[in-house]
Structures are given as structure tokens and as C-alpha cells.
Write a structure and sequence with these properties.
single chain; mainly alpha; MAL
Length: 161
């Protein structure tokens, strides 16, 4: 796989999107972003916490990454400004996900049943939500890493055009 799909450095279209770096990262970004969305949506919010931002980021990035991926498959990305837009979008998504990952980690620390329970923290109330929040933190950082890798390779491709 190469960072530049063609000698001219133009962006891939059709199913060529699934064979070039960084565009092959669209599907893992959608998978891990969707997992964050599902896990955060399934937990109970016990008090005011920053999970609203995490939900916004995961839904926003999921929807816009899907639209971006669809535009690439349709070949609507062949104008000269698209490589720069690709860097801008994935850079913004990476920053959003980094901030959401930190917020999710903080919310997870706040609901730790070992520090907030007088009963057995591993069988008591809130442990299931705690496990879901831990998984959301892990998947959120994986999504952050995927977006960072995507923006780096998109920037390399942009500089080659």
C-alpha cells in the first residue's frame, strides 16, 4: 500500500479507497467510533459528567466519516482542494477524539465503584457501567490513533500534490 494512489497524487475513488493508505483507515475509524458511541450511549449517567461531549464527538465523527467515505467511493473527491480538506477534516476529528478520550477517561475515573461503593465493587451496583466505560476509553483512544495516522498520511499525500 502506498500513501499516494497514483503517480499524480490524486485521491482514489471507487473501491480503490479500500486499498490505499490512509483511506483504508475509514472502516476501522467507523467501527471503533461506532463502538464508542454504542458504549457511551448504553451507560447510565449518574451525575453531571463530560460524556455529552464524548457522545457528540463519536456521533459527529461517525456521520462525517461515513459521508467522507461515501464521497470518496463516488469519486466526488477529484478536485484539487480535496487533499487539503482531507487533512483538515481528519486533523479536526483527531483533536476532537483526543479531547473526548480524555473526557471519557475522566468520567470513568469518577464512577469507579472501588472508590464510590461500600459494597463489593466488583459485584455491586455500577460495575457493569464501569466496565462499559473502560471499554469506551480504550476504543476512544484507538479511534484517536486511527484518525492521527490518517491525518499524517493525508498530509504526506497532500504535500506530494
Amino acid at each position: 500500500m502506498s500513501a499516494s494512489p497514483t503517480p499524480g497524487g490524486e485521491l482514489p475513488s471507487g473501491f480503490g479507497v479500500c486499498t490505499t493508505v490512509p483511506d483504508v483507515l475509514f472502516l476501522p475509524e467507523l467501527i471503533f467510533g461506532g463502538l464508542v458511541w454504542i458504549l457511551v450511549a448504553s451507560t447510565k449517567v449518574f451525575y453531571a459528567n463530560p460524556q455529552g461531549w464524548v457522545m457528540f464527538v463519536s456521533v459527529f465523527c461517525f456521520v462525517f466519516t461515513f459521508i467522507w467515505f461515501f464521497l470518496f467511493i463516488l469519486g466526488a473527491n477529484q478536485s484539487s482542494f480535496w487533499p487539503g480538506l482531507d487533512v483538515l477534516y481528519h486533523g479536526t476529528a483527531a483533536l476532537f477524539y483526543l479531547s473526548a478520550s480524555v473526557a471519557q477517561a475522566y468520567a470513568t475515573i469518577l464512577i469507579n465503584p472501588a472508590t464510590n461503593s461500600t459494597t463489593n465493587p466488583y459485584t455491586g451496583p455500577g460495575f457493569k457501567e464501569y466496565q462499559e466505560d473502560i471499554a469506551a476509553v480504550v476504543f476512544s483512544y484507538i479511534a484517536t490513533l486511527l484518525y492521527v495516522i490518517h491525518v499524517v498520511f493525508s498530509a504526506i499525500r497532500w504535500k506530494k500534490t
